[in-house]
Amino acid sequence: MAEKEIDQPTGVETTGHEWDGIKELNNPLPRWWVIVFYISIIWSVIYWVFMPSWPGINGYLKGVRNHTERANVEASMAELAAARSDQMSRLLAVDNLGEIENDPELLQYTLKAGESIFGDNCATCHGAGGQGFKGYPALVDDAWLWGGSLEDIQQTIRYGIRSGHPDARLNTMQAFGRDGILSSSQISDLVEYVTSLSGREADEAAAARGAQTFAQTCATCHGPEGRGDPAQGAPNLTDHIWLYGGDKITLQETLYQGRGGVMPAWSDRLSEEQIAALAVYVHSLGGGE
């Protein structure tokens, strides 16, 4: 057996390993570390006995406590639903926004619930704050395509727009160019006229010609002055709010190929209480009507 080598400066036994003249000392582990290590081993054995641990062929070792986080979560969700049931019942009984606004507790609950539902289901398209994106309406302004009352918003959420639901909101922005309804020159004139409606610079002669085309093909939905019609979901063309963009190139595209976005119906995904809370929250984002 080889004789143990002692490092002279420290008086500590070496391991016999040496690199570039530097010898590795065989220092013992700190006592506190060893104690913690053994406690961890003991604790793991105790945990193994009492709690779910190793997987098996037909399941897993459930432990003597038969603990399951799934059951705990289900119980917590049931408790939460029971705690919310009273508020939800009160919310469904409300006939107008004024009743909610006059009940601070109910209003706070409704807005918090609606915000959570919005984040889970609506923010992907409309943005986390309801700011909207191209083709997805902003909910933070006061321009409501289908009306901004609580009833209107609930109707839109419940049945959607062009969703295929029998009660969905439905309108058609025709493809005037693609379907040969208007010529290219008529569309160009119409672009100038629509541009002028919102007070922007436009070719006056072309806008005058476009006014005649507008009266014949567009006024039925957008109104003779272009102020829109919420009953038909026709947008106001006199403001500066554009769902797909209001520059001339985008207007040309819109008139040529038409528009028709889809909002899904949420009646089969959200409860009536959730739809009511969501409508109140969306109403609060832009002031509503």
Question: How does this model look, in words?
Answer:
It comes from Hyphococcus luteus. One of its GO terms (biological process) is proton transmembrane transport. One of its GO terms (molecular function) is electron transfer activity. The protein has 289 residues and is mainly alpha-helical. The chain folds into 3 domains: 14-60, no CATH class; 71-167 and 263-286, Cytochrome Bc1 Complex, Chain D, domain 2, CATH 1.10.760; 184-257, Cytochrome c-like domain (Cytochrome Bc1 Complex, Chain D, domain 2, Orthogonal Bundle), CATH 1.10.760. The chain has 11 helices and 4 strands; from the N terminus they run ββαββαααααααααα. The strands form 2 sheets. It has a two-stranded antiparallel sheet with strand order 1-2. A two-stranded antiparallel ribbon has the order 3-4.
Rounded mean pLDDT score: 90
Parts with pLDDT < 50 across at least 5 consecutive residues: none
Q: What is the CATH first-level class name of the largest domain?
A: Mainly Alpha
**Count of alpha and pi helical runs:** 11
Q: How would a textbook summarize the main sheet?
A: 2 strands, antiparallel
Structural category: mainly alpha
